[in-house]
Design brief:
Holliday junction branch migration complex subunit RuvA, 3 domains, five-stranded mixed barrel, four-way junction helicase activity, Helicase, Ruva Protein, domain 3, globular, about 220 residues, ATP binding, alpha+beta, OB fold (Dihydrolipoamide Acetyltransferase, E2P), about 15% strand, RuvA_C_sf, 10 helices, 5 strands, DNA polymerase, domain 1
Length: about 220
């Protein structure tokens, strides 16, 4: 399994790029969002990858973060969602957008992706809702992980009581998302308050992710 590619971009097509890794060229399929953020030809690039193995074909897909890669793998477990539809969803929403849509049960956001109808979008929400907390708590981009030289989620810190922070507009939506994911109101409110106490200016996606890390079972 090829889990990560680091090399030089040789060229880019409509839905893929060719990355030269020490003289070997790898065709890596990427979403429009990922492609737009890549450096120019001849420059270095690093992407997380997932290898799709079919009877007559091998395809390598590239992602900026572990969360995006994991959503791609999970999206393809939903009936009616193949690699093309998964990349369309991620290209439209990004990893944080997918996390937010599934946490809030917003199937309309999923349905905005090309080739994804309302029924399929609703099935995505139903099938992946229970898996959202673990994926959203992962967080981190490739650059952030490479800086620490670790490709694993950071261990959550010990819980502690904190004073209620100044109101943040992301707070109600984060509480709603955690409620939709099955967390008790008191637990959700405590985790959100603690997360905002540490980082008062968190946006919705970051706040949900931080709260999920605090709510994760401690080993």
């Amino acid at each position: 399994m090829i889990g990560k590619i680091s090399g030089i971009i040789e060229y880019r097509g409509t839905d893929h790029v060719l990355i030269d890794v020490r003289g070997v060229g790898y065709i890596v399929y990427v979403s429009d969002r990922v492609k737009a953020g890549l450096p120019t030809n001849g420059e270095a690039v690093a992407l997380f990858t997932d290898l799709l193995v079919q009877e007559t074909n091998l395809q390598l897909f590239g992602f900026n973060s572990l969360v995006e890669k994991e959503w791609h793998r999970l999206l393809m477990t939903v009936q009616g969602i193949g690699a093309k539809a998964s990349m369309a969803i991620l290209g439209t929403l990004g990893d944080e957008g997918v996390s937010r849509a599934i946490a809030l049960g917003d199937w309309n956001a999923i349905a905005k992706a090309k080739g994804v109808g309302p029924k399929t979008a609703q099935k995505v929400i139903l099938d992946l809702k229970d898996k959202a907390p673990a994926v959203m708590a992962m967080g981190g981009t490739l650059a952030e992980n490479l800086e620490s030289d670790v490709l694993e989620p950071v261990e959550a810190p010990a819980r502690k009581r904190v004073a209620a922070p100044k109101a943040n507009p992301a707070q109600p939506e984060a509480l709603s998302a955690l409620g939709n994911l099955g967390y008790a109101p008191g637990d959700a409110a405590g985790a959100v308050a603690e997360a905002l106490g540490a980082q008062p200016d968190l946006q919705t996606a970051g706040l949900i992710r931080a709260a999920l890390k605090l709510l994760a079972p401690k080993e």
